[in-house]
Structure formats: structure tokens, C-alpha cells
Description:
It is built from 14 helices and five strands. The chain is α/β, with parallel strands linked by helices. The protein has a five-stranded parallel sheet with strand order 2-1-3-4-5, sandwiched between helices.
Amino acid sequence: MLKQKIIRYALAALCALGVFAYITIYLTQVFTPGQDEGDWALGSTYAGFYAEPEASIDVLFLGSSYGAAAFSPNVLVETCGIRSYNLCCEQQSIFTSYYWLKEALRFQSPKVVVLDPMLLFPWDEGSPINSPEPFTRAAFDAMHWSSVKKDAVMDLCARDDSHELGSYLFPLRRYHDRWKELGESDFAPAPSYDDNGTRGYVALDAESGNTGYEPLYPEGVDQYTDPLPLMKEYLDRIATLCAERGIHLCLITTPSVAMNNGAFHALTEYAKNKGILYFDMNEYRYYAKIGYDFATDNAEDSHANVSGARKITGFVGELLQIVYGL
């Protein structure tokens, strides 16, 4: 009789625990904000990556929204037959790029990594990792749990006190006060990302109309912008990881009014010291080579539009074939 009571109590406890776990998981999904509103679809970018067949990607793009709007995997496969994925996302710091590279290498073995390095330089001075908490949070919320995410979150929380370890283990700690903002979309089933269509690329249709933009003429200009020390440390880690895995690392900056001669010289020096390639689409040689027109090929002062992305991606495709033999 006692044994039967113990069994009944144990089963009741397990059922209660199961119900509690189900409710917790459901509420976490409801309260965690979606990341697919507006132009920058972080949710589909990261979730879509996990839907890619393993060992199917030859080129991986990493970096901020500059790269997200500039590198089109669909154009690359159509014109060159090279399969790639764009893991660039809005305000993705070099810190975040490093850990997403580590995460990507759990599933893929790219031959080339193309990195947009703009956030090597000061962007968000209030953040130790050079990116606002919501954007970094979204990037790591989307990462599947593994030793990579554990290391990333612990490293992040140690460096930036706006991030709390407990809130990554139990996201409701971070998002419980969103109940006032909940809408119908928060209760909808999560979308399937068997193929997110653009493979991470963000297509922008607007035209900047900026006819005053001038490409860079860096020769003879004595300017140098110091990279942020922590961002340089993580760029070094990216370079080392790529070298260890036999992956070519290439740095590319895209047309933007934010780019300047000081950053150009810093990146040129860095690439030379590391024995890697760096190309700046703002530099007059490459700007002219691809026939870029800032007024019609940029969506605004920072990001390429669809026309600009086709030109930039065309250059990348040629580079991948001629220099890297893909």
C-alpha cells in the first residue's frame, strides 16, 4: 500500500513538473520578442541558418547590417554557383561575430569567411562590446544551446553588466514585463524556416538620392583610426580560428558615409599584418570598378540597396573564383 502511494505521488509530481515546464516554455516563447519586424529580419537570418543542410556552405558572411544588405547569397549562387549564407545582422559587433563563427563551424565547413569589420571602430560607446543590449541579446537568444553558447553568454556577462546570466538560462527574467506590449503576433505559432529565401540577405529597395557622396582617395592621407582594443582582440580570435581551420578570411567594407580614410588605413594595416585580404568598396578604384552610384545603389547613407548588393556581390563572386579558386 505504501509503495503504491509513493508511486502515485511520484507520478503526480512528474505530471505537475511536466505541466510547469510546458507552461514555462510556452510563456517564454510568447514573451520573447520576435525579431522579424521591419527590414532587419534577425529571427529568420539566424533560424534559417540552422535549416541549411550541414556541410553545404562554401562561403560565410559575418558582420553588421552593412554586410546584411550588401552580400546576396542568391546572386552569388546564380552567377557563380557558389553556395553561401549571410549571418550578418543589425549592429552585430565583432564579439558577436566571433561566437557566431564558432557556432557556424559546428555545422558548416566554409572555405572562405567574408567579414564586414565596421564595428571594429567605435559604434556604441555605452556598451563594452560596442553594440546595444537588445541587438546582442537577440543574436544570442537565437543561438542554440551548446558549449559555444555557454561560453559566449558567460563571456558576455563578464564583460557587460547589462547582460545577466540568469536571464539567458530563464529568458522570462528578461522579458516578463512585456505583458503590456503583447499582441496577436506574439501568440502565433513560430514560423518554419526550412528555407528563408534570401539566406540571411536583407533586400532594401529605396534609393539614397545622395549625389554628394565622394569615394575615398586614401593615398597620401595621413589619417589613422584606432580600433577598439576589445574588438581588435576578437578580430584576432576570428583570424586565428580561421587559420586553424584552414579557412580564408577576407575583410570587405561597403559604400557608406561612415567610412573614412582613418578606418581604411587601420584595416589595410591590420590585413597586411595578418596576411589576409581587405577590400573597401568606398575606395575609388573598387567603387569605379563595379560601377557603383551611391545615389541609386544605396538605400540611404549606410546600406546598399538591391541594385548595389548585386554589384557588390558580383565583385565578391569574381574574387572568390579568381583569388580563392571556388
